[in-house]
Amino acid sequence: MLDKNGIAKRIAREVKDGFYVNLGIGIPTLVANYVRDDIEVEFQSENGVLGMGPFPFEGEEDADIINAGKQTITTLKGASFFDSALSFSMIRGQHVDLTILGAMEVAENGDIANWKIPGKMVKGMGGAMDLVASAENIIVAMMHTNRTGDSKLLKRCTLPLTGVGCVTKIVTNLAVLEVTENGFKLLERAPEVTVDEIKAATEGQLEIPDEVPEMILA
């Protein structure tokens, strides 16, 4: 199965030349490290950055240049900085081609829960609701199961929803799945992971084609 960097590396293959991409907090922030060198991509962060690059090397960090998760980042030539009003105008105006988010749960109909666990302190939803309400192409980066081994790909989300019927694709440590009218469709499996292992780890309806290829990460 994949680690977090493996998930990010696989999602980077979904990023196309000329795309404007929003990276959510957590695993999605790693995607910028693995985008192909021969394409041009503009990474946007809702705290007001367009033109994010990979994470800086140790000792080269600039504490004033951060992403929405307050991590230090680099910027590419031509990058720009602006206020939150303009940033969310980009998001709400559907000027972002691809949104990559983390999640605690995803339902078989594409519902997503990624902002709150009841009873635990939260700082707020942040930009997640705007992103899922406005984006037409949402890929979720997440672990397939939680720490106790229970599936996070469910028939119905049990946590407070962030968005309804909005997720298009999911990349986990076990598989790549597409959200369809019939539930989750298994597209690819992680190296050395079997279809039976994926099936056992998925609570929601899972469509399994006759042939399920192994992920290509290079």
Automatic annotation (TrEMBL):
<keyword id="KW-0808">Transferase</keyword>
<dbReference type="Pfam" id="PF01144">
    <property type="entry name" value="CoA_trans"/>
</dbReference>
<dbReference type="GO" id="GO:0008410">
    <property type="term" value="F:CoA-transferase activity"/>
</dbReference>
<comment type="similarity">
    <text>Belongs to the 3-oxoacid CoA-transferase subunit B family.</text>
</comment>
<protein>
    <submittedName>
        <fullName>3-oxoacid CoA-transferase subunit B</fullName>
    </submittedName>
</protein>
<dbReference type="InterPro" id="IPR012791">
    <property type="entry name" value="3-oxoacid_CoA-transf_B"/>
</dbReference>
<dbReference type="InterPro" id="IPR004164">
    <property type="entry name" value="CoA_transf_AS"/>
</dbReference>
<dbReference type="InterPro" id="IPR037171">
    <property type="entry name" value="NagB/RpiA_transferase-like"/>
</dbReference>
<dbReference type="InterPro" id="IPR004165">
    <property type="entry name" value="CoA_trans_fam_I"/>
</dbReference>
